[in-house]
TrEMBL record:
One MF term in the entry's GO annotations: ATP binding
Functional description taken from the UniProt entry: Part of the ABC transporter complex HmuTUV involved in hemin import. Responsible for energy coupling to the transport system.
UniProt organism field: Novispirillum itersonii (Aquaspirillum itersonii)
InterPro entries per record: AAA+_ATPase, ABC_transporter-like_ATP-bd, ABC_transporter-like_CS, P-loop_NTPase
Keywords, comma-separated and alphabetical: ATP-binding, Nucleotide-binding, Translocase, Transport
Protein name according to UniProt: Iron complex transport system ATP-binding protein
Keyword Metal-binding in annotation: no
Amino acid sequence: MSLVITGLTVGYGARRIFSGLDLPEIRAGRVTALVGPNGAGKSTVLRAIAGGIAASGQVFWKENDLLRMDVRARSRIIGFMPQGLRDTPGLSVLDSVIASLRVFAPGLPMSACRGQALTALSRVGMIDLALRPLAQVSGGQRQLAGLAQSLVRDPAVLLLDEPTSALDLRHQTDVMGLLKGLAAEGRTIVTVLHDLSLAANWADEIIVLADGGVYAAGPARTVLTPDLFRSVYRVQACTGQAADGGTYVVVTGPLEPPP
Ligand SMILES: Nc1ncnc2c1ncn2[C@@H]1O[C@H](COP(=O)(O)OP(=O)(O)OP(=O)(O)O)[C@@H](O)[C@H]1O
């Protein structure tokens, strides 16, 4: 099973961001990291797949073209965590997760909704804060609540836009471990990441978007090269191996301007 994206054309109004983008096959059971510089179009790709923005081309999942499904049908397959959480004034953390379940499953009994929402909150380690108003949790806790909202329908495909950007080291590790576990259960996980060390240690596959296309794709050891750091990120950087086998990325400075 895989997500096969070809000829994706998407933009905002008259502004094209991608014209006929082909991505490498995104396989179920793996964590795929979507990386690239600011403005490369990572969020736009996720929005296009999730149905938050009009797009043409093909996004095949099990012989169905997601782009030809309405958002409700897509939501049965896809969980999407955008960057930043919509404001839901007055709602508790738990209510906000229930709301994101009920919007696509209005007939589901409240007791079942509560049960599923509590399960999602416990998966992200937020059960203790379930009854706290969402407006009164920290930035990182809000991000975990957003993750629970995207998990609550138990989607086969999970699209996450920088799910760890507000998290401390332990919570980053817990979330990446959770994504690994969800992938091991057969789900397809696509996550935008800026932290290339996290991508190197947790993603099975990295896709680098730059200049309107795919610059490189594959496992970290083949993708995260000094050439990539120079050409795509405009920095001097390299990777190294920690004693425990982990990979780290060190940036030593901006790319020297040409003489
Ligand atoms: N709502 C919008 N209206 C118009 N242009 C937009 C809109 N959202 C994004 N863009 C533009 O689309 C391009 C791709 O943006 P996108 O947010 O997909 O990039 P990104 O790779 O996710 O960036 P970042 O790493 O900064 O989050 C950028 O040039 C951006 O300015």
